[in-house]
Design a protein that fits this description.
two-stranded antiparallel sheet; globular; Beta-Lactamase; alpha+beta; about 100 residues; about 40% helix
Length: about 100
C-alpha cells in the first residue's frame, strides 16, 4: 500500500537552500527572449562575476573556454528550439587557468 501525498514531507525555502548549498549547486534562470541571466550568489561566485553588472548569455560565454563556446551555444540553441532538458560539460577560463 502506498502512502498518500499528504504523508510526504514538505520542504520550505530554508530546507531547500541548505540542501542546494550543501551540494555546491548554483541556481540560475535564463530568459531566452531577452537573453538576461540571473543567478544566485553561488553562481556569481563560481563564475567570478560581479552581481552589480547586467548578465547575458554572451557575457557569461566570455568565461567559457574558446574551444567549447560554439558547442555550448549550439546546445543552448537546440534546447531552446525543441524545449526540454539539456546536459553539457564545458571548460571555463579563470585568467590563464582552466576549470
Amino acid at each position: 500500500m502506498s502512502k498518500i501525498a499528504t504523508d510526504r514531507p514538505e520542504w520550505g525555502y530554508d530546507e531547500l537552500r541548505r540542501a542546494i548549498d550543501a551540494a555546491g549547486v548554483a541556481l540560475w534562470v535564463w530568459n531566452v527572449d531577452t537573453d538576461e541571466l540571473v543567478m544566485d550568489r553561488r553562481g556569481y561566485d563560481l563564475w567570478e562575476l560581479s552581481r552589480k553588472d547586467a548578465l547575458t548569455f554572451e557575457h557569461l560565454s566570455e568565461k567559457i573556454h574558446p574551444a567549447d563556446r560554439d558547442r555550448v551555444r549550439d546546445a543552448f540553441a537546440a534546447t531552446r528550439a525543441r524545449g526540454g532538458a539539456y546536459e553539457i560539460d564545458f571548460r571555463t577560463r579563470d585568467g590563464p587557468d582552466l576549470r
